[in-house]
Each structure stands twice: as structure tokens, then as C-alpha cells.
Amino acid sequence: MTTNRTFTMLKPDSIEKGNIGAILEKINAAGFRIVAMKLTQMTENDAKAFYAVHNERPFFGELVEYMTRGPIVAAILEKSNAVDDFRALIGATNPEDAAEGTIRKLFATSISENAVHGSDSDENAAIEGAFHFAGREMF
Ligand code: IDP
What we know:
By secondary structure, this protein is α+β, with helices and mostly antiparallel strands.
């Protein structure tokens, strides 16, 4: 199987609750290699652009407010089958539906404040990684 990449954000609630270390432990234990990583904060325009696909949804305003209210950890991760394996590791969008042991089951508060982001396709992983990182920041 070829090695490929996904993009993740540890969302503001994860940083507020002091869960960066615990979540990175789970990511490391699952075999992902860190290609790029930083603490950063999205502006309103950043969040609106990043989540543009959701701009007609009723929760869009709430989502932008949540994602901009504090710092996030942005990272690019590498592993075989990275996108699908990472989506499995984080679990369903709503933590109530997430499988036991998944990051969202363990660390998310609600369907909106759900601890982590994971890209949903190889194409989006590349777009989202490039949104946050310059080529010289990827290793
Ligand atoms: P995903 O993050 O699991 O791929 P998406 O459907 O792409 O889920 O939604 C993006 C983000 O928007 C979610 O991670 C969550 O933070 C937020 N979100 C999704 N659905 C709802 C909802 O019904 N109410 C409030 N926030 C939501």
C-alpha cells in the first residue's frame, strides 16, 4: 500500500481542555508520522474559506466562531491509507455516534465542538495542508 498524507487540526476545545498531548499520543500510537505541525489561530476569513463547502448550512456561523475563538494545532500526517485510517481513528462527527476508543469519543464535547478535524479525501488533504503550510514547513 502506498504511503500518503492527511491533514488534521486539533480544534480550539482540545487546546482549551489541555488535550494536545493526549491526542498526539493517540495519533503517534496509531502509526502516523508528523510531516508538518504548528500552533496557529484562524481568522474569520480563514475559517470561512476553509469551511466554504458548509457555507449554506445552519451551523456555519457557529462553526466559524468556534474555529476562530482560540489557537488550533494544525498538522500534516503521513501513513499508508492515511485519510481513511485517520477518519477511523477520530470517529464519527457526532461523538455520541463515535466508536469506543476513538479520539472524538474520548475528547469531543458535542457534534459542533468535536475536538479534531480529519480530511475526507486525498485531494482535500493536499488542499487543506497547503492552506496552512508552506512547502518549506513540510518534512
Ligand atoms: P467532519 O469534520 O466529521 O468531516 P463535517 O460534516 O465536514 O464533519 O462538518 C465539519 C464540522 O462542522 C464538524 O467537524 C463540526 O465541527 C461541525 N458540524 C458538523 N455538523 C454539525 C451540526 O449539525 N451542528 C453543529 N456543528 C456541526
